[in-house]
Amino acid sequence: ASMMQAMRWGCARGVFSNEAGLGSAAISAAAATTDHPSRQGYISMTGTFFDTIVVCSITGLTIASSGVLGSTGADGKIVTGAALTIQAFSTVMGKAGGWIVTVGIALFAFSTIIGWEYHGEKALEYLVHKPLYCYIYRIVFSVVAFVGATTSLEIVWNFSDVMNGLMVFPNLISLIALSGVIAEETFDFQDNVLTPERLARKSARLQKETD
After folding, report:
1. Cα 48 to Cα 17, 18, 100, distances in angstroms
2. Which of 82, 87, 55, 52 is nearest to 69 (CA)?
3. Can you spell out the DSSP letters for 36-81?
4. Is the Cβ–Cβ distance between 85 and 59 less than 8 Å?
5. Which has the closest alpha carbon to 207: 190, 42, 199, 194?
């Protein structure tokens, strides 16, 4: 292990975890109902904190302190991925820990599949404006998801890292090009929406509705 490898895997898994910089989360955020785009931007930023800083840090610290890191399975290979996480939590919580992690991973995986399908479908819908292509996309996506679920973990991770990398470059270029617009919208939100007077009126209105 080296510092370069730690940075490489940390960045790859961090990006895979929270999608920061990929531009995909913005598709879901764009569907929200809000009075200002910057408000939704602030809300979306919390996802990176809870997903990576909280959940992933707890998982990593649990694995590192459990003593199972580097252990081998019945096939003689080093245990990795979800199996390693289940082992780590099981060292303290027993079978309950394994079940909690298993159910959590299943729910996270299912929601991730649905989310990525939505992102791809909305992008395709924007490009072609024909519902037929969206139906075809759903079929192709289902087939690809099945192949990914039955392929070795190493191939899936390598493919995901490459695809995420290809998404990062055009999105970061666009962010740089639109940085002026982003700054303008942010300053407008801070100056005209987050003013004490508006916040006081909103608080009074909410209190009146509650009463």
Report:
1. 8, 5, 22
2. 87
3. -HHHHHHHHHHHHIIIIIIIIHHHHHHHHHHS-TT-B-TTSSBP-H
4. yes
5. 199
- For the stretch 126-179, pLDDT in tens is 888 888 899 999 999 999 989 988 888 788 888 888 888 888 888 889 889 988
Instruction: List, in order, residues 6 or more apart from 29 with CB less than 8 Å away.
Output: 40, 41, 43, 44
Distance CA 36, CA 182 (A): 12
Structure tokens at 117: 């399908």
Task: Identify the residue whose tokens are 């055009």.
Answer: 170
Number of Cβ within 10 Å of residue 22's Cβ equals 19
Q: How confident is the model over 29-67, as pLDDT tens digits?
A: 888 888 888 888 888 888 888 888 888 888 888 888 888
Q: Classify the C-alpha dihedral 156-162-118-133 as positive or negative.
A: negative
Contact present, 134 and 125 (Cβ < 8 Å): yes
Angle at 154 between CA 153 and CA 157, to 5 degrees: 85
Angstrom distance (rounded) from CA 110 to CA 112: 5
From CA 7, how far away is CA 168, in angstroms rounded? 17
Report the alpha-carbon distance of residue 168 to residue 23 in Å, rounded.
8
For the record, the structure tokens of 14 come out as 């961090």
